[in-house]
């Protein structure tokens, strides 16, 4: 990536109505050979290329994408990043990935728009309650942040949820994974003045 993102580049580009940002990705002519060729520029292909370069010091890697980068499942998913999976292997793998996500914007100097609000799964019948409690226990045994919430606790965490008892799908409880790191919240707060400044500059310029 050619761009260096900072509050200064944000101000500079706000002054020119964001029309002069450098392209984020290069569009190079293919070489005759590579040490590794990765087919597909989705999350997995890009991460593979990145970690081959970062951890294995490989520099000559091609990522071949038939559409546009991140335009596959990676660009159209629900964007929930969580690790509250039932099975040990999945939980371990996803928790490792979740921890990487927590520092990725800083590591890449690129806003990956990761913002931890907590993920809640609701139970609507007795089997859901059993399944979600089982999952919460499994998560906790794996050291993963997970709590089981009563209906009242669901309402307290997310007041807009309708927890009335006379609706078709009653809320009988739910699980919650928050994984909120105080230092990261503080970092987000550090980004806030920059964002506010950009909004202000746009407003002033309009
Ligand atoms: C509707 C939906 C919701 C989801 N929600 C979540 C969620 O909330 N949280 C979560 O963690 N996961 C979610 N997932 C799963 C997650 O999105 C995928 O597991 C992940 O994006 C897969 O990444 P990928 O790089 O393997 O595939 P993709 O992102 O699909 O990338 C594959 C790329 O390969 C390219 N390609 C394919 N064939 C070729 C070829 N022959 N030559 C060149 N390029 C090629 C495609 O154009 C594409 O860009 C969801 C998936 C879907 C579909």
Number of helices: 6
Low-confidence stretches: 182-206
Strand order of the largest sheet: 3-5-4
What structural class results from the helix and strand content?
mainly alpha
Small molecules (ligands, ions, cofactors) in the structure: flavin-adenine dinucleotide
Please indicate the percent range of residues in DSSP E strands (runs of 2 or more): 5-15%
Helix-strand pattern, N to C? HEHEHEHEHEH
- Largest sheet at a glance? 3 strands, antiparallel
Strand tally, please?
5
Task: Compute the average pLDDT.
Answer: 86
Distance between the termini: 30 Å
Give helix % range: 40-55%
Q: Give the overall form.
A: elongated
Q: What is the structure about, briefly put?
A:
The chain is mainly α.
3D architecture notes:
Helix content is about 45%, strand content about 10%. Helix 1 runs parallel beside helix 6. The protein is elongated, with a radius of gyration of 22 Å. The longest helix is centred in the C-terminal third of the chain and has 24 residues. It contains 6 helices and 5 strands; from the N terminus they run H-E-H-E-H-E-H-E-H-E-H. Strand 1, helix 2 and strand 2 form a beta-alpha-beta unit. With about 210 residues, the protein is mainly alpha-helical. The strands form 2 sheets. Strands 3-5-4 form a 3-stranded antiparallel sheet. It has a two-stranded parallel ribbon with strand order 1-2. Bound molecules: flavin-adenine dinucleotide (FAD).
